[in-house]
Structure formats: structure tokens, C-alpha cells
Amino acid sequence: MSAPAPAITAAEETDAAGFAAEWQAWHQQRLQVLASPHGFLAVTDLHWLTHEPTRFDGIPGQWWVSDDWLYVELATDESLLLNGKAVSGVQKLGSIAERDGFDLGHGETIIEAAKRGGKYILRPRHPQNPLLQDFNGVPAYTPDLRWRITGSYRRFETPRPTLVGAAVEGIEHIYEAPGKVVFELDGETHSLTAFNGHAEGTLNFLFTDATSGKTTYAANRSLAVATPTEDGIVVLDFNRAVNLPCAFTDLATCPLPPAENRLTVAIEAGEQTPFERSAN
């Protein structure tokens, strides 16, 4: 006869309940961001710009790129809002850095002008986009403290430029990797190459695992973590692993994980394949 499972203490129950409540609050905040009227679910199209002036359905003006500057020529009956002011005629809008961009207004539509993989793009976003209107949340694993794992951050002597693929053909992304995190799971040692997060000092990980293409989105998931401590301690809370925009729509240019971030272990935590993809 096998030994009975150890009893869960009152303190452990309290910790688990508080952890679950924190995760639920975070998850609801995440859903609010996804459901925002001009968020990524509002994207209606993806247009690639060239040196040839071109018109696109639903967007005023002719658009082109010259010497790494974005231009638009608006007809006499056309205008756009730039920084809250109406502009018309020929406009030299700016030179956009990689992975950067800005927005222009056109009625209810926000037009995102950006650069991805060295190429200029336009992505109109409309609050009545069916993908956004039909949004009904994101399935996720039940939060579990088991997947809140402590790792060790190992900074590289110099940041390593890392070439990664993209969710669309024809472009690649280059990210600087400042270091990697090593962690233990089920008696085995694993590591993940880190990229810089949105806030200074924070880290972000692009990864796949043995659940990818089964219960989670096949191409990638992302995990943001806080700044490592002075002695290099990092908390990897895989319960907060999220889908990138390409999990919801083909109009995204999301980066793919580097080869070393394709874990062989099953990370049964975080967001699962979106309903929109599961229905396909």
C-alpha cells in the first residue's frame, strides 16, 4: 500500500489562496488590455510599404518610403490626425526606428505606422473589428505554485545580438540578449536566453515547450520577469506566460523563440491556445 499524501497545512492553503487571487487579478487586467478598443485585436489589415506611392483600402492617402522616411500624400478632401492635429497634402511623417512606431487618426480608426524587420508597415485598428467584438477571454491553466520557479540569472560579458524568425515570412528580428536564466524542473536543468523587457532592468523570454501545438499556441509564448536581484535570483512565474498577438491574428509580425528556448519539458501553466485558433 502506498503512503498517504502529506497533509496540506493551513499556512500552505493560505499561500495558495493568496497566490490564486493575485493571479486572477493579473489575468483580469490582461483581458482588459486585450479588449481595449484600439488594441491588437482591433487590427483589420497589415500593409507593407515600398518606394512606390500606394493607396490601401480604408486608409486615406498614398504612402511610400524614401531614404528611410515615411511619406503620405493626401488628396484635397482627405486628412489625418497626427499628434491631435489635422494634416493634409504631402507629409514627411518621420523616420521610424526598428520595433517602434506612432499612430495617426482617421475617424474611429487608428492607423499604426511602424517598422518591423527593417520594413515599414501600416496597421489600421478599428474598434468594430469582428475579432475584437467577438473576444471572449483567453483560456489558461489553473494557477499553481509549482510553476513559480526560482532561477539563476547569468549575465553575458557583452549582450549577444540574437537573430530570430518571425510569425510572417520574409522578415527577421534581431534582439540583444543580455544573459540567460538557468533553472531546475523535475530534477533536470534547463535554461532560457533572456531579452530585455519593456521596463529597464526587466527580462523577457520567448519560448515553446512540449505543450506547444497541443494545449498552447504552437509558435511561441512570452514570459516577463522582474529585475534580477543583486545575487542573480530570478522568479519565473510560468503561470503568467502569455500569448503574443500572432496567437490571435495573422496580421502580427511577432518574433519566434531562439532555438535554445525550445524547451522539451511540458510547461502546463499560463495562457493556452486562444479560442479563436482552437475554432479553426
From TrEMBL:
It comes from the Bacteria. InterPro entries: DUF1684 (IPR012467). PANTHER family: DUF1684 DOMAIN-CONTAINING PROTEIN. This is Uncharacterized protein (DUF1684 family). It comes from Paeniglutamicibacter kerguelensis. The lineage of its organism: Bacteria, Bacillati, Actinomycetota, Actinomycetes, Micrococcales.
